[in-house]
Design the sequence.
């Protein structure tokens, strides 16, 4: 088990480097530069040269990359060109908002998705099954930002139950979390259902039936536990998708967060902020998948043996 | 369910092809006097901020969404099939490198990849198609790699190889054609996802630019009027939801018809 964990952890280092190079080169291929957003129209050329030099944008790209990487390894993510703040502070300020939204929607996805998946598998080909699967399918097919706007229209504007935007209160979290969570719930419900139905045909289930176990006891004690494995893998792998939903939804509800910060920095070509927040987001997604892998290996001895 | 999906897709194709004939008004004609008017008998789905007929624009948008969906999925499939089949066929270091890249891309939120690419290439329909295509290829690479791995040691491949077939012939004439069915299913569902991604990019202001009547651009434009003219957002969104539902139902039915194992990966 430990060799497996160590090998997987070591693999994260080259991945980190590759991603940093990709992110860095992509950002610098973006047309326009941050100096344009800083200086108003009709600026003097000498001011421009001075500012370019100040932010190190006059050096060659490989040099800029090395400087950036060196600083990051020392815990310095640079200074926002537009906001005049250390990027690290901005990320630290925004991360809790995104984490809160991400976790809340993950909980909704999990609880609702597994509930729908289990009841539709238990009641296969009945009315309940069809209704749950239609809900799940809608969750997958509805564009998240549209759902967010519609929920906002109904529950904030028409009914006035929740605030339209903001992040201060628990109420402000409800609609964004439901918006992001429904998509994940649909996905999880569909996988849970298929995985449960496959379990029904296994020999050990047949044996337990023969020994006289009732269907509810069977589902709770045996089928559900075994059916959960593929669900956990998929969730680990698609954690990023759920987080990706959060990025858009922050804009819809004007919530602070990494997504909102990233987009406004992208519009204004604030390189240091875009680079750092992309790097943080990407690594978060990859570490999420990594943790899911480790948990999976821990739970399933067969996976562990593959890496002995 | 599969029948419903097929009907929905056929409707979309019909609307996309005959859009100019089905529109009650020109999708471009503006009339400031009736701007932001709610749905009525003359304007079934209301009018937008320039007094343009939302119904006509939704119809015209079907054409754009359909083309964006199909073209971007084609790009994804071509890249995915090439990368995945090379990884599966040659194995070894090539496989490890390509699979790692594919896995990394796959675990990233598609919207982030697409946003970055559009930021580089500039907003507009062509770059959106390219960006969506480059965001979704990894899934197809994973699928085809798995198929090739299991087919590689099949007897008919061994036989063809012993007859002197080159790697190229083996891959493109025998292995890939025999591995395509799960890719086709995934691509069907993928068209729906691509349409949603186009709209999301549009919503973030990085998609098709106004006055292009793409569903995403219409909704992005409508956000400012959410509280006074919600029909500008509701109807393009509904149209998109029905379309995506159609592709998903059709794809689900294909899984059963084509008897595909390994459903989790689609």
Sequence:
């Amino acid at each position: 088990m430990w060799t497996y964990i160590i090998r997987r952890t070591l693999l994260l280092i080259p991945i980190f480097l590759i991603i940093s190079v990709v992110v860095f080169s992509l950002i610098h291929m973006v047309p326009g530069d941050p100096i344009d957003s800083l200086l108003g129209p009709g600026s003097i050329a000498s001011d421009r040269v001075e500012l370019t030099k100040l932010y190190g944008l006059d050096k060659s790209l490989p040099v800029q990359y090395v400087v950036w990487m060196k600083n990051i390894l020392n815990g310095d993510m640079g200074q926002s060109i537009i906001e005049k703040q250390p990027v690290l502070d901005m990320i630290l300020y925004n991360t809790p908002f995104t984490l809160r939204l991400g976790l809340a929607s993950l909980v909704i996805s999990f609880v609702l998705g597994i509930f729908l998946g289990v009841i539709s598998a238990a009641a296969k080909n009945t009315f309940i099954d069809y209704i749950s699967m239609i809900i799940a399918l809608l969750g997958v097919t509805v564009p998240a930002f549209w759902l967010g706007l519609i929920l906002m229209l109904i529950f904030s504007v028409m009914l006035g139950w929740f605030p339209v935007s903001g992040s201060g209160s628990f109420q402000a979290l409800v609609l964004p979390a439901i918006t992001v969570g429904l998509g994940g719930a649909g996905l999880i419900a569909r996988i849970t259902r298929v995985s449960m139905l496959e379990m029904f045909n296994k020999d050990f289930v047949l044996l337990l039936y023969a020994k006289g176990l009732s269907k509810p006891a069977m589902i709770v004690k045996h089928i559900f536990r075994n059916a959960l494995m593929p669900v956990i893998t998929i969730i680990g792998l698609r954690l990023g998708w759920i987080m990706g939903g959060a990025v858009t939804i922050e804009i819809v509800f004007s919530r602070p967060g990494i997504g909102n910060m990233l987009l406004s920095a992208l519009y204004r070509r604030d390189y240091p902020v875009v680079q750092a927040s992309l790097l943080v987001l990407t690594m978060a997604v990859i570490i999420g998948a990594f943790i899911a892998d480790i948990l999976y290996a821990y739970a399933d001895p067969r996976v562990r043996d593959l890496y002995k | 369910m599969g029948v419903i999906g097929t009907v929905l897709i056929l409707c979309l194709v019909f609307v996309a092809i005959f859009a100019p004939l089905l529109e009650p008004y020109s999708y471009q004609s503006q009339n400031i006097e009736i701007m932001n008017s709610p749905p009525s008998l003359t304007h079934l789905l209301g009018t937008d901020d320039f007094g343009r007929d939302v119904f006509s624009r939704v119809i015209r948008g079907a054409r754009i969404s359909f083309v964006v969906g199909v073209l971007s999925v084609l790009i994804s499939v071509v890249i995915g099939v090439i990368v995945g089949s090379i990884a599966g066929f040659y194995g070894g270091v090539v496989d490890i490198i390509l699979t790692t890249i594919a896995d990394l891309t796959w675990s990233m939120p598609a919207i982030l990849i697409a946003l970055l690419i559009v930021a580089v290439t500039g907003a507009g329909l062509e770059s959106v198609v390219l960006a969506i295509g480059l965001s979704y290829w990894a899934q197809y690479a994973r699928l085809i790699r798995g198929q090739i791995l299991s087919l590689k040691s099949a007897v008919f491949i061994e036989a063809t190889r012993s007859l002197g077939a080159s790697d190229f012939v083996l891959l493109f004439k025998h292995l890939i054609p025999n591995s395509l069915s799960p890719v086709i299913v995934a691509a069907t569902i993928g068209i729906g996802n691509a349409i949603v991604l186009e709209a999301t990019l549009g919503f973030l202001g990085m998609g098709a630019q106004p006055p292009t009547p793409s569903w995403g651009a219409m909704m992005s434009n409508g956000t400012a009027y959410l509280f006074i003219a919600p029909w500008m957002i509701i109807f393009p969104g509904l149209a998109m939801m029905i379309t995506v539902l159609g592709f998903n139902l059709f794809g689900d039915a294909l899984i059963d018809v084509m008897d595909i194992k390994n459903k989790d990966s689609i």
Notes: DSSP finds ten helices and no strands in chain B.
